[in-house]
Every structure is written in C-alpha cells, then in structure tokens.
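WARN retry 2 of 3 for item q-0093 after timeout on previous attempt; input resubmitted unchanged.
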Amino acid sequence: MTFKSVALKALLGFTIFTSSFAASSATLRIGTEPTFAPFEFMNNASGTYEGFDMDMIREAVKRMGHTPELHQMGFDSLVPSLRTNSIDIIAAAMTITPKRQRAVAFTQPYYDAGQGIMVLEANRDRYVDLKTLEGARIAVQIGTTGAEMAVKIPGAKVYKYNTTNEAILELRNRGVDAVLLDKPVLGYFTVVNPRAAKGMVVQPGVFGAESFGFAVNKQNTQLLKGLNEALDAMRKDGTYDRIYAKWFGTTERR
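OK item q-0093 returned
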C-alpha cells in the first residue's frame, strides 16, 4: 500500500469520525447511571429518568436543536462507552479530575460538590471525619470520587458497590461502618427514603471540594462548544437557578 493511499484512508477515517456529530440525526445519546438521586434516577411511576442532571442536559440539548436519547449503564462503563462513540455525552454527576480529563473532554462545571459520610446512629460520635475512618470498613460506589478518597484512608477496608443504594443497604445491614459518597446524594436519600434511612445519619462535614461536568469525546469539539454555550445561556436567563431550586430547594449554589 502506497504512502498516498495510507494517507487518504487516514484522512477519510478522521473526517468521518470528527463529522459524526455534525452529520448525525437530531438525536444525541446520553449515557447515565440512574441510581444517584437527586442528580439522576428512575421514576418508577412514570418510567422516566429524572433529576438535576437530567433536567440540565435535556434543556442544554434542546437549546442546541437536538433530542436526548438516554442510555443506562454502569458508572464505570461510561467513559469507555464515550471513547468508543457508543454514546455522545456523559451526564452522571461525574467529577472533573485530571485523570478523567486525559480520557475525555469536560464542559464547564455545572455543580460544585463534596463528599459526605453516612453512619449508623449508634456511631454518630465515632466516625465523624476522614481521620476517624482510619481502620474502618467503608462502602463506596465503583468509579466515584468517594472510592478514590476511601482507598487513601490508612487501614480502611473499602467495599465497592455498583450503585448508591447497594452501598447504603450494606451500612443498614451493618456490613460496613460508613458510606463515603457525594453529600447531596446521601442527604437526598434520607429525605425521600425516611424508612430506609431510619437509624442512619449523614455527618455535617463536607470533604474534598469537587466540580461536576458533562463529558464528551475529546474529538468532538463542536459538541463541547455547543454544550458550553447552552450552559452559559441557561445561567444568564435564570434557567439554571430554576432547575437548581427545584432539586435542592434553594438558588444558593454550592
């Protein structure tokens, strides 16, 4: 095969890949892991995906003139699926980290968060921060910032679960001493599931400042630009504040 033919094939392959978004139908495939209320979860009564992230990405995609098509998958499958173009966007309360930035491109941050600790009521005074979790049994969700934080705690035994609910259930069953997860998620769980959360408390501290962003394939610069422009417009016209207040009861951004 000549150099010219190799170059032509490479050029054609690159053109097809990078223009996939521009030449595609009006549908954008959104990957999410809907067990992370209030950011994304399945409303069993209506059979629809709901949450802060879902409202945000639907509005952003609508402003871009496209229709969102939601795809459920495990959190640890999201980045690989994006990199192989099985999905177009990740909307899953994904923390922007240097490691992830090497694999995908993030939009501007749309939510500032931090990790929280949930423990049994009986251990309220025992496990209060990361220091007191040394040597403890900690439940986390696979692939999350909480999981990365937990493995750095000296002596801790880290148990990884596919979903938030599985991690909290393990605490309820006394299989672990604490759950380390995004604090808004833990707080929301106690509010909407008071019976399931009975006997458990979320500690007052917030650990490790972090920001969430929507993610796209690094090659898809046009899509990234469109999402950022939509997010800018949503902040300027009050749409962001309206959606924020709907899910967090205030427009005071964390």
